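Researcher: Let's run the pair from yesterday's discussion. Sequence first, then tokens, for each.
Model: Starting with the first of the pair.
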Amino acid sequence: MNLKCGGECNRLFSAPRSLTRHRQTCKHWQRQLTLQSQHFKRISASLQDSQAPPAKKMKFTAQVPTSASESPPMPMNIVTSDSSDSPASLPSINDSAVASSSTSALDIVQEEQPENQAGRPSRTHRLPLRFRDELPVPPPAIPAPASTTVVRRVVLYVFDSFRTSLNQFGIGREYRHRPSYDPDAFVSVEQLSNITSDFPSLDEQDSADRSGSPEVPSQSPPWPWRSMSIWRLMSWKMASNSGLTSESQLTRLVREVLKAKDFSLDDVPNDFNAHTEMTRFDASEATLDANGIFQRDSWRESVAEILVPTRERNTDGNGQLFTVPGFHHRPLIAVIRAAFSEASSRWFHLTPFKRFWKSPLTGREQRLYDELYTSDAWNKAHDELQKQKRDDGCQLERVIAGLMFWSDATHLAQFGNASAWPVYLFFGNQSKYVRACPTTNACHPIAFIPSLPESIVGFIGKYVKTKSISDILTHCKRELFHALWCILLDDEFLDAYRNGIVIKCHDGMSRRVFPRIFTYSADYPEKVLIAAIRDKGICPCPRCFLPKSRFDQLGLKADISARIKSVRLYLRDKVFAAREALYKLGAPVKGAAAERLLKAFSLVPTLNTFNERLGNLGLDFFPMLVVDLLHEFELGVFKYVFKHLIRLLYAINHESVALLNERAARHFEDVLQCAIPAFEGLFPDSHDEVVRILLFRLAEWHALAKLRIHTDDSLDLLSQATRCLGQQLRKFRDSTCSAFRTMELPREIAARQKKSSDSAGAGTGSSGARPKAFNMQTYKLHALGDYVSSIKMFGTTDSYTTQIGELAHRLLKRFYQSTNKQDPPKQLAKQERRRTRIRRLQESGNTKDNQPAGSILPLEAHHCLSSYPGIIINLACFLEEHRGDPAVVNFIPKIKDHILSRLLGLEYDGDERDFTDVERNDVRFINNLNGVFQPKRFQINYTTYDVRRDQDTLKPGNGSTVMMLSRESSTNAHPFWYARVLGAFCINVLHVGPNAHNRSPQYMEVLWVRWFGVVPQYRWGFREGRLPKIGFVPDSPAAFGFLDPSLVIRACHLIPAFADHRTNDLLRHGPSAARLPGEVDDWASFYVNIFADRDMFCRFAGIGVGHQVQYDSLNIIQPDHAVGGGSTDVSHEVVSDDEDPEAHANVDFGEESWQCDRDVDDDVSEDDADEDEDISDDCDSDVDDSDDFGSDSEDEGSAFKF
């Protein structure tokens, strides 16, 4: 048989493989493909412009020429979620056949799966259940106030309370005060999407240029730039702001500068110099009105003053004044005025509200917790503000500027010691989805904290005769920090905090704005600085007085009760008395006089600026020190548990560590998600289950704590997860850890030796490994018990996570590359000011650049099999090349059965129908499969649990896995089906015969898949602490098949069950189209990673607010409780409090009877004692204390090496 290349190429080949290789380089064949692609684009464009699409059509169809020379390739089909592939559409979700086959998503007792002789699950020809893909919608409009006449009467306070209607997801709002401005009224569907792209396409850019070309020549450059060409060049330079020119920056240079209609090289003088232009731009600010809103927030340099104790007795005070120069900062009130006057203030929420949700399936109403402006803290502050007496007679509306602070020291370069300690300000009035994005300019750097100069050592030496001055240096660092904040919280800020400031807002209305501090996000060493408490003292928590000895009681009822009874209060009298002893009596900083007053409460002799300046105005600064998921759990608790598991493996068998290195991921969060399969089977059987459940509880707690939207139910689950995690950690400590003698890891030995040599000279310190026990008495573990209350008070953790501040560091590091590396804070302040001024000029109107375009896939579409990248293949040649491969057995009959059932619009009765050969002949492939388009990218849009649009992008044939709703209707059936996508095809077909509904050429999108089945007799779920386990269906007629892409919910992440090893029992040994290149066998089974992301977790837990409206069955989210604990219901077993000690902490401040173990400080480990109150000058990282649940010194993306 001779095979012809086609088109103008007349070469003949005897083997399909030779033909395929030839076509990859044949110019004639490539030209033919290009013409076909252009032909389809014209057809697709005409279809999109059509005003009368066929009834019930879900995909774009085109009239395709029947001749081989004119047949176009398959299109980039964009399919909506409720569409079908034929004029007779598939039944809707409301059809009785679909509704009756709904399944339970939350019951774990696995349905008995049919097995084959090999004990593997078999599979019948059944189609997945169709689901509703609902688009996110903006919140409902606020109703107009009633026009009824109100009888005047004497009342204390009047609240215009009301509720909005519910949207299609069942979400509504409850207001205590009617808002005068609602920014969500302008929200579009695109703004409710997480799908973005960096730059507009060339066509969009050209279109924008053409549409604006008539007005461009008359456009004048922003002052002080000499021409639009120079303005565009310099604004591009500040936007890129990097010493390296990346591909994306060069793309922006071409699109935004060189191709702009108002850019001309003639406008750029021959003596052009970027440095000169920037110097002129910097000097121009001095000529502007100093009282302008956008000029008053410029950077200033101040000098801080601290008192250094001299150990001398002096009734007038022995403190010597020491000045610290170089404090670069911006006035807070000026920053607030500017922020409320910028264009971005259009999206500021000025009136708080509470969000509630009524389940579309159960009808049950619950409170939603997400944004700061919907939190209890903001609603309470707003109510108190409205009750505040109006002494000045001002009748302007009173609103709050919600201040959220971040601060964290960072290295500015990979090499060297250059560092900065910035303080960032964010406004809680903005949505967290805006604040979390570094490109939205929501971050306002307000200060750079200087470190103590080296000259202070000599200054102290003049007055203090003792050899050791470390305690005095530590005290001076704390004094400096609070002196700097005293400068920031100046008298202007205090007056605004008390009386407000009048600002003309974006809508043109003047309002009286009152700043309120809600959160301050920082890691633990910085928290103790802010709170002015002792680092790793008796009571190291900045939010409560619980002693460190009780931190291992996480989750117990007594622990929860003690937190409420022992809320931390600021004991100013004790601090003031200690300072009197320090500065007047000459007592040492950690002498007996100070320790007697402060040690039991972990206080330090430093007056807290937040209390001194704002305490009498109602600020309680301890609650503002919110929890920190990044450092407390991801780089804290989990990292420490992970390291101790490695220590245990070293103690058991060194070879297990090498095996783990082959399995484990390298990113800290990936390690958490993949740890369960990676550690499986590495421990003795008696301990393996303890480790597995512990890792599951850690991943479960992390998923719940990181949700972007919470309900009352999900917060209850987080409370239960905290309880179960504490119990499992104690079980792990008492059973597994106590059974082995664990030592330091090689990396820990090297770090300790380096630290010892740096501090005391080379050759010091022991070279051997030291014992390392599992320690639960740490602050980071204790902090996990505060997450539920923090979410209820301030909203979800993603709103104030320190990761937002870490992302903001990236901009400073790019700034640093453009400086001369001298005096980094001053240089960074200058770079930030330049960027802010240019950004404001861009936002002013006529110089605004084009906004980034979104994804090429419309949000309302369900999926897209992209035309680029993709190839045209001869499917017949492909089948010939894989002759004998079990994956292609009966390929043509199967694909015809699949296409025919869709063309006929057959109801899904549970089984795919097998058609006769006569019926199959009614499906004709145009060109006899000679021009089948094979897309290489499969995009899936889906609505997430927090009612936003997101997208998965897959590469068919590269190990991609998808999930669908299951059609299993029996009790406790698995809620989803899974399939490996082997390929995607877009095929031109004709449907002929008496049953044809549409005799025109039609494009059909088909996924070629290899099916998975649930492993029989395996129990999974939250109560069991097990991931779902699936495996390939063994070679059989049902092992391979075809799938309608519109049935896919989203992509799925599978992790091999390493302990089950690989096998040849599922498919014959050797290469196959069903395997990745180089593979000759398969993993015996896989775990479904339900912790892959927040949305995936919520689908299995049944707590997704945006998911329920997509299902037509209550069983998906509300299962029956399984017998024997095998349920996906995330409720856990009741944890007994029998292990809880009977003693409860009591605080009697009047009698100074802090009833706790006064010797508990002696219980601190040796490493903790050495690091007590050790806060470095630059605070570059947390202390590398292996007994403090992990070091925070590594970047979030660093690798774990053992």
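Model: Moving on to the second of the pair.
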Amino acid sequence: MFPTFTGSSRRPRNVDLSGQRKTNPWANSSWAPTQSGASKTVAQAQAERERRHREREELAATKRLQKIWRGHRDRRDLRDLRRQEYDALYRHPILPQNARQRIEQAFPLLLAILVPTRSDDQQRLDLFISDLLGLSPSPSVPVDFPGLGLLSPFAWDRLARLLVRALEQRDEGSSQTLLITAANLVKQRPASIKPVLKQYYLVLARFAGENSFISSSTGQGRILSEAVVAPLAPDSDSGDLHSSTYRTFAYTFLTSPHLSFLQRRPETIAQFLDLGALSQSIIHAFSTPEFLKNVVGDDLLWLLAHFVALNRAVPASRGSRYLEALYLQMSFLASDIRSRSNSQEKDDEYESDPDEDIEIHDFAPLPEYVIDQLGFLVNEDGIADLLNRFASIASTTNHISEDTSLLAGYTLVLLRCFPSHGDDIKMRLFQGDIQTVDGESNSTPPSVRFFWEAASKTDIFTTIVQQAKTKEKSVSVPALLKQDPIHDLEWRTLLLFLELYNFLLRVTDDEDFLPRETDIAIQQSQATQRIRASSLNLDELKLLVNFLKHLSFPLYYNLSDIVRSKPTSERLDAMMGVNTARSNLGNAKDAPSSIAGITGIDVLGLRDVASSAMRALYERDSRRPFLPKDFWLMTGKFDMGVFISAVVLEELRNDELSDEDEEEERDEGNPSASSHNFAGDWLTRSTDRRRLRPTHSEEFRSTIGPKLEVLRNMPFAIPFEVRVQVFRQFVHLDKNKRRGGHVDPDRWRLAILSGEDGPNGPTAFRRQYLGRHTATVGRGRVFDDAFEQFYPLGEGLKEPIQITFVDQFDQPEAGIDGGGVTKEFLISVTNDAFGPERNGDHTYFVSNNQNLLYPNPSIFDDIAAKLRNRGIAEGGDGWRDVMGDLVKRYEFLGRIVGKCMYEGILIDISFASFFLLKWASSGQSTSTDYRASLNDLRDLDPELYQGLMGLKNYPGDVADLSLDFTIADSVWDPSGHRRTITRPLRKDGASLPVTNKDRPLYISYVANHRLVAQQYRQTKAFLRGLGTIINPSWLSMFNQSELQRLIGGDSSEIDVEDLRRNTSYSGLYAIGDDGQEHPTICFFWDVMRKLKDSERRDVLKYVTSTPRAPLLGFSQLKPQFSIRDGGTDEERLPSTSTCVNLLKLPVYKTAATLRAKLLYAVQSGAGFDLS
């Protein structure tokens, strides 16, 4: 088309203004093709036929409407005539003996005229019912309707259904006589209202919530009760009818939330019910897929609450059907109950951190009545009732394994529904005995022993243990996890045993774990006797540990193979812990697979439970060995020759995936946010911030790093020395990645300044970046200066730092930081921060009687008391600033300790075991955190530990001690003395006395408060800082004692020859071309060999500031141990520069002189200086 063209290509319309009809078929104004004459004629004929057909249909419809209207008018008129006839029958009173005749005449008329929505018809019905009830010889005697012989059975059935329709239109005040009649009719003919049974129970549900029935006399309540149970009378003609009636009763009546009458007096209905049939109807309904599709709202919650209430009202045992019905309902509602009940639990004041974001879920709270009924299931009476029912089942059935599994499954669902009551549930079960029948003998073992015997006899347990004994390369755990009815029964029993045994380990101290045979039983309290009766012996422990090791190993190492058979969406739901039961109502095939057939317990849940028990046993064995050496090792599962290189490769892959995740997050968010790491712009593009939260699913991570998963969660399977090497390799990889291949500090700084990866060379911005890694620190204020200058670095503290020490006059001290000053700085910071007194400042860490450090439990309470004393409003800006600064200081302390570990610098600081256990648990894959135990309390407060031990072994009634579930904490007071404040250990703890039964639970709560709750914010901040420098998953490779060795070195005997091989010499002592050592050096090593190990440690601490050797030998000591001459004056003492691990040794002529001078210098602490 030409650009100068301005016209339109559209053809103009051909408009004929003549008014004449077009005769030219070709004169068409549009471009559409025209029809030929023949086709146009056919189209017109077809349209004409359609018009005539439409007219005929309209005529036929009109005739039908007229016919219907005429029929309706005739029936209305006929009904009005019959109403007149009916009214004539009741216009005048009659004698009682004529009532039967009037009933016979009125009943056909009533069936023909009754329209329940008309009030006058309702009045006519009342007249007829009055005649019927008048036939009874006494008001208390119900009328025998079929026995009257007045009407046919089918007529009575029609009357019953009419009564239900009439009751639908009435309120409770005018329905009493109709309700009595309907109840009597239905009681005598239960099948009469089958077509309207649902409407019948809907009416009764409405009446049950009305005030007149709630507040009325017992007689009216009896009427309603009889009406409710009337259709439930056994029908000899049809068992199916009886079952369907109970189902309608359950899912129409019991699902109503307005059954105030039932909720106040459940016994009035329960006494007439066949609760076994009710349980069976619920079981049948839950096995019907179509049923679940019709469930709406909270119907099932109300059904569950009313079902529990009815069974509570009749305490007699109903066998296993009650337990199974309860189990099915709780399983289906588990996620709903868990989320909505947890939203009502008040968080512990220690368990919240104001600095972190809290995700708030908008869950509607459970109704109060539902809470009350569900609360019964987890309280002492409910658990006792559960065990009593089970004891009856076990003593009357030969299928004890199925019943045991049912009890286990129900208890597991309880634990899932009420995690906040988990300890209470386990405590009640732990205290219970289970009566069993074996032939003609009865026994009542403790519940833990009962489930151990049941679990250890399962095919799953024996298969795994036998394959472990034969040292097969792969135990067939994946095959055992496949859905199978028999395996489901066994997995439930195993899971409950592990849950109970985990609880038992928490309340068992070392003395009761493997008691000596010399202990006298008569001196034990009931609590101690219960614990020892429930414990396993050494042979059983070996079996259990073997089972747990070989069960957990494939759940970490082969997780991807185990879950590979699931569809992707189901695997993601399982990994995220999503319960898709609600979204897949009625379609069992689409629901995600679960372990033991329990919704919400999947492979990861099984792994968590097994891992918790395994780690608890491992921690106890680490603290007080009871298993043979190397019993925990599983090196046969790996090719140890290439293990380290394989793990390093997996870590590299893991880092690559983490980097990809972070890049995706930046692409979705603000790309400029990544500029915080300036060095990464030149050195490497992969030096972005490492997230402390996982970014991949457990399945995906196990696919790329199965060995890493084993190291994180089962570190004992690999020898300690190998794990230390892996740790150092991980640190080296991280340094290499962050520093762009320039691990050496000086080369890294040079690379930054020269801008090797940048085009413009050094810039002020680069110098500014290096300046952020430089600090000027004064003696006496090392920690405060370090915090102010290095806290903003965050993860950047991993990079090399430069320190300049200044004296009291702010004059720089002599010395060049070649790595030694950095070591001196880090050691000085730790000595300052971890010291018991900081010039009257805050004491961040306190020590026990063994000088083991742990976070100061009362520091936040003390500062809060001081702020209140100064009039600072709680929650205000000033309050948040002070508390936030304290959190930051704990976080910075964690970074400093992490920096020492990162650089391989040993520090002479020992932490309490329970505190180190929290380090190890911070990087594990499982959801279980550190759980306090009574034994850990010994490291925190020996006096409190002894007091609790006395309470545990107290032979009398603990109630006499007037203890309750509260604890007293000591806080600062303006008077200069400390005062105590009382805190509850559990909800309403002040009103809950401690009894003999819940004594172990009280001890557990006290231990948890002291070890976890009171130190929660301090520990969390410290671990957050530590995790910034040291990946938490690396820390999880070690137990508490191994972590202490990683921090402060090996406590084994000093290897003098290893130290000699890794010592450098300078000055006069430098080794010449002949390769011979200086005579004084020879004297030194002769003296070191002859010293006692304690004296060698003193020498080592004198030179390096720590008395222990590095874990992998002195070749790992940074800087290297070195000796140089300190002059020729033999009167001088040896001196050191600890920052560079340098011993300045004067030239001594004899070994005796050297020994005397060396020991004197070491023991007096003289000679520390900077060179």
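Researcher: Give me one sentence on the second I can quote.
Model: The mean pLDDT is 79.
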